[in-house]
Design goal:
globular, 10 helices, 31% helix, 5-stranded antiparallel beta sheet, alpha+beta, 329 residues
Length: 329
């Protein structure tokens, strides 16, 4: 049998486009070249293009996600590894398309993707299942002037976070310390998305834990502790080195076990697929609070998941192979 064709689907139409392209380069470096033929497909600004090398691109036929090589041979991937951070790869839209054309892919299904992408929906759903999350409220676009600043502060308190309800990499997110900063923060968030979430601040230790499962195994990775001198874990902390990432985290064995069990439980409750990463804050009294779930986590060599894979003594190439082959089995 010949090599399987894997397309790394990247780019997207959100502010996270460039982050996604870096993740795609990371995944390409991780995949087993002896087992797979690899192409990157960039989706951006209405264009779907296969990157053929030497700067050459070929339009993807959206009827079946195929594309033609320079020699005229038509390529249709056997599997798509989605690493779009943001729309349309993290909100269920691309997953729905792949379901319609029968294309296997790496992430969770449409429902899980759309739910986890909307932070306000996710938090309220998880709260109903007994998972601790921060208090929050939603401001819809076009109705932001109807919400009184005093009412927001009375409900959520200060400091608080104002962020797009759907998005990532902390784009459009502001830590608000006083009433004067609230309205400008809402305006910034509205530039990134249609709805804004105002979320209570929770002081504590920020951590993140990766997990993936196949039909044969359940792997919960070591926990990473996130320490930054910035106001919060914003874009510069994430991607410009203004942070310390400690793996494994400086937690007691008991707390480590609690976080890993919770991560595994959330994975199963939602019916996740592929690699996910869940962010938490541990607050006073050893309370574990879920922040968000990343279903297409960053995958550069220095991203959290590769760090945690190394700390677990695993090979990232084997992990990628596990996910692909389990989906295709």
């Amino acid at each position: 049998m010949g090599k399987k064709i894997v397309a790394i689907v990247c780019g997207g139409d959100s502010s996270e486009h460039d982050v996604s392209m870096r993740s795609a380069a990371g995944i390409e470096s991780f995949l087993d070249k002896e087992r797979y033929i690899i192409y990157k497909v960039e989706i951006h600004a209405g264009k779907w293009e296969a990157l053929l090398g030497n700067g050459k691109r070929q339009t993807v036929d959206r009827n079946d996600f195929s594309f033609a090589k320079e020699d005229g041979l038509t390529i249709r991937p056997d599997f798509c590894y989605i690493t779009i951070h943001g729309a349309p790869g993290e909100n269920g839209i691309l997953q729905g398309y792949f379901d319609l054309i029968g294309m296997p892919y790496s992430t969770c299904n449409v429902l899980v993707e759309s739910m986890t992408y909307d932070k306000f929906v996710l938090n309220n759903y998880m709260r109903g299942l007994g998972v601790s999350v921060a208090d929050s409220l939603l401001i819809r676009i076009g109705h932001d002037k109807e919400v009184d600043d005093e009412d927001i502060i009375e409900r959520i308190g200060l400091p608080c976070f104002v962020k797009p309800a759907r998005g990532g990499s902390s784009f459009g997110t502001t830590k608000v310390k006083d009433k004067a900063g609230l309205r400008p923060a809402i305006e910034v968030a509205l530039k990134e998305g249609e709805d804004v979430m105002v979320e209570a601040f929770m002081p504590g230790t920020e951590i993140t834990c990766g997990c993936y499962k196949t039909k044969e195994k359940s792997v919960v990775l070591p926990i990473t502790e996130v320490v930054t001198k910035r106001e919060f874990f914003d874009y510069d902390a994430k991607y410009n080195g203004e942070v310390s990432e400690i793996t494994p985290a400086r937690l007691t064995d008991k707390m480590t076990e609690r976080v890993q069990k919770l991560t595994s439980m959330i994975y199963d409750i939602l019916g996740c697929h592929g690699i996910i990463r869940i962010d938490y804050i541990i607050t006073e009294g050893s309370k574990i609070n879920m922040l968000e779930i990343n279903t297409t986590p960053g995958m550069t060599a220095t991203s959290f998941i590769p760090q945690q894979v190394r700390a677990a003594g695993l090979d990232i190439t084997d992990v990628m192979t596990d996910i692909i082959e389990d989906t295709l089995a």
